[in-house]
Design a protein that fits this description.
It is a single chain. A seven-stranded mixed β-sheet has the order 1-7-6-2-5-3-4. The chain contains eight helices and seven strands. The longest helix has 23 residues, at 2-24. By secondary structure, the chain is of the alpha/beta class.
Length: 232
Amino acid sequence: MANRIRYLISFILLLTMKVMAKLLYRFEVQWPDNNKNVPWNEVRVIALLNHTSLAEPLYVGVLPVRFLWRLASKMVAPGADKTLNRPLVGTFYKLFSPGMVSITRKRDDSWQEFMDAIAPDSVIVIIPEGRMKRPNGLDLNGQKMTIRGGIADVLAGLNSGKMGIAYSGGLHHVHAPGEKGFRIFKTLKLNLELIDIAQYNSSFGADRGSEEWRKKVIADLQHRLETRVPVL
């Protein structure tokens, strides 16, 4: 019963966010392969590339309601402990996604806890860069934005389903890291691509999960990050 209540609260928040996003922002969405007939029931992974803002939940505005209901009960997502420990923002994210698992910046037990939380019917939502881009184009420490190995861990454990890659145009014009307010009536750009996970995993000419395979997955997603993100 408690789980049902949490899932209902999550669904209401997701639906509210979708309505607000559609009312307050204009979306420009493109599909690189002109593939708009999405089998949402087969989507196992959503990977957001070009992580720029805590306002990225606004992108639920492009998702169908039936998929929001699935996310409410099946979503598993890693969340930075630094973010989830914030009194206001952290509470919102935990209500927004009951399946959010707090992780540290290190590959420690917290990452394994996230991996263990993934069930056969989970929808994994992940930001492969693992940290936010600042307005200068770099991360908080002044380093280039790169793909981390976590996404390879996730894909190595999946045999089927689809991965949706969401290429964000960036949201610094809505809310940049460190800012207190949000700007409304802005245009949000998003390129979407749907990939068969089994085909993707077998496309690198290396054994799935091997070090060579992991490097090729990371290199491929890095190339996508640098070439397929829409420009505002």
